[in-house]
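User: structure tokens for Branched-chain-amino-acid aminotransferase, please.
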Amino acid sequence: IDWVEELGWHNAVLGPREPISLDPAAAVLHYAQEIFEGLKAYKLADGTMALFRPEKNAKRFNESARRLAMPALPEDAFVEAVRVLSLADRDWFPEVEGGSLYLRPFMFASEPFLGVRPAKQYKFLVIASPAGNYFKSGAPAVSIWVSRDYTRAAPGGTGAAKCGGNYAASLVPQAEAIERGHDQVVFLDAAEKKWIEELGGMNLFFVFDDGTMITPPLGGTILPGITRDSLLMLAREEGLTVREERYSLEQWRDDATSGKLVETFACGTAAVVTPVGRVAGHDGEFTIGSGGPGQMTSRLREKLVAIQRGTAPDPHDWVMRLD
Ligand code: PMP
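Assistant: Done. Predicted tokens:
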């Protein structure tokens, strides 16, 4: 779908994936006016294709658009584009257990213009890609590296938006984590380098021995994850006390060492819920619980996956059936 000032959104087409041509002066290539979303089409137990809370992705997309001075896309147009593509690509659906179709809606500034101001032409596209099951039987625990030298988002910056630039800035710290033998990087806040924020592509939860849970609050420097939001609701329904509260690296280490903190998990669309077993940084490392997947992590993961796959009731109408 295209956008120009005079017409707004127009020219919606469904077609085969092919290269697109851009003027070398297209604003996106110079000033990074680009945003995206990530969601999955699932097959329910009865074979129906379904999306999980796509209207939340549509809302977040428009919040990202606002931060990047881009035009809003009506939520129903976003959901319809994702729906139409999922159905058109149903033959690409991977026939492996737990497989899905990963959907990538994105928007960028296509106007050829070299001045620094919001562009007056945009393109919105959705592409799809088959995705296998991240983890067939429960997720293995990952090891994460605390970045001291890099932060992901500063107050007032673009941290809460899903824009390409945030991910470009995460590449070096993520590579550093891998080089040091870890799976993921965890970012601290920019101001004090003290508070835990999130991983490169997942939000974090901390589980304590008294059954309470904490997740860092959304203060503009963390991506408002849709998995995070869903787990907050599910955990509260399970009777857990969940607080959106700042949690420091120091406290994390002390609580893990004393046994007060029993589990930590990361969550996001790609892997749903992933246990964190080990945390390392320039000041040493510590293990969480037994270093393997914890009980609450597995329970919440199973509960969410069951709703997504249509094997458990869906009291909040999170699942949108496509056919
Ligand atoms: N944080 C970041 C930085 C991410 O890229 C993602 C993935 N979109 C998440 C958190 C998790 O968000 P969601 O649950 O909506 O996939």
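User: Anything notable?

Assistant: Residues 67 and 161 are 7 Å apart (CA to CA).
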